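WARN no homologs supplied; continuing
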Amino acid sequence: MDTRKRPPQKVIDENNNILFRGKPFFQLGFYHVRPDGRLQDTPVNTYIYNKTEGHSYALVFSHLSSLRAYEAIAQRMKKIDHSQIVMHYLVDEPDGQIGVTLRDIELLNGLLKAICPGNATFLNFAANSTMHKAFKITDVIGLDHYPIPYGRVADIGYTMDAMRYFSGNRPVVFVPQAFSWGGGYGRKDGRWPTPDELSAMTWMGLVHGAKGLLFYEFPAPKMYSETSIKDINPQLWARLEKLLKTIDQIIPGLLGPELVSPWQKKSIEEKQQPEFRLLVNAERSEAWLLAVNPWDSPTGCVLEIDKEVLPLTSLHEIENHGASLQQHDYRLEWTFSPFATAVYRVESTTLQRLTAIRQEQLLAQLGEKFNKQQSQQVATVKLQVGEELNWQKATDLLDSWKSIKRPDKVRIAANSQGIHFQSTLRFPTGHRSVIQNRDGDVWRDPGIELFIGVPGQNKYVHLMVNTSNVQADWKFDHSLPEPLDKTVNFNWQSKVENSGGELVDFEIFIAWAEMQKMLQQPEIRSFAFNLGSSSLSLDWAGLSGSGFHAPTNFGVINLE
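OK structure emitted
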């Protein structure tokens, strides 16, 4: 095998763009479709495909089926036209694949960089991956984030920022969800994104700096279907076609420098805020404004433009789905319906005044989000009147989530009967619970854990449920020589919906009388709390990596 090192070549430019044939290139494509003509009337310019003859598209060359076949890979690389390859796709979601190590990825990356120095290398990760060392192996990384129907579109911004920060700002190719978890993928409550949800997901990725889009996926209802999204969901396809055409128009801006925002944002809502990004092309002759509401409720804000940077600016609408703009000189007043999006062409004679953000400045800003020391986590749960529970009025713990890795969904609600917990967690493919006996080491299995105590005390209850709905409840009192008591058996209910795929739904209910027994309190107005998963290394209070059994660092739930 001849892997003699060739001179390194530039594959990423100064604006963090992927280079294809020496020029900045923004990928638009889909998973699981060949360049067979079905997308020839769209702006799609990239295919994940391993044959270079018979077409002129950019190729993402896949090595997913040949991870350790180094000799075969070297021989295959001698037979292809490297000028058609934009990236080599090494591994998909490596932290979800048992047996794939950092060393495997490093060896494959090194081989391909030696043989194909003019092509970028690429790793794709699932949302909330904590395999941070792998983020820095390849030239480009990808992000799968599929929030419908279990998660929140708004969290795409968080995961995009995490990928950029922990990779040292490598280019991120975003993979929006254009499929349903139901149907071919077996989730009974799965559904397609709505057109507005798909637009909001896509624009959130672009607002947070995506350097390419590979939609998952074109065939439907599953990856090997002969039918496609065009056949199965024509309404969504109609929006997708329009979305692709709009993105194609603004690609010069997506390839331009990343900017310091020339405005101050004053939001109506403290938490559920719309997001914006100003784009400018490399020549500073064209500009565009992207606006998105990533929330499932209306919101609004005011942008006050810096008149020293952009005086006498005019905005011309290109595409709008549910956004309303009133411009008063340098003041832009916005209202948004749920998942509203809009794109505007910006006319100004002073685009040269826009300031590009330096990489070290960008990383410092992102680092504030992931490195800052926060005060104790606090959330408020409002008591719902009556016995009927309305999950729409629940408290969403993702609004105050502290650990870097996050679940797809986690909510708390309370009514006259007791307190309810609901969460959706994503486990590696092939996950399996082993513990079958109550009060065993359930925490070792894929599952969910609750920690409930009295604020300021070292006593608490540890509740555990694995994916087979096997329970354990232990009591801890760190003032005792032997703090752990496994003999307690509280009366609480759990429900687990596990289809055998990655996503598992958990529900836990504790009656007020049982909460009083757990906490040894006659009345409960607040309680110390954490929710986590040892197997996934995630938790609300941010104790992952340092140990969950630290009651002084639990968060607090206040009841109103």
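The radius of gyration is 25 Å.
OK
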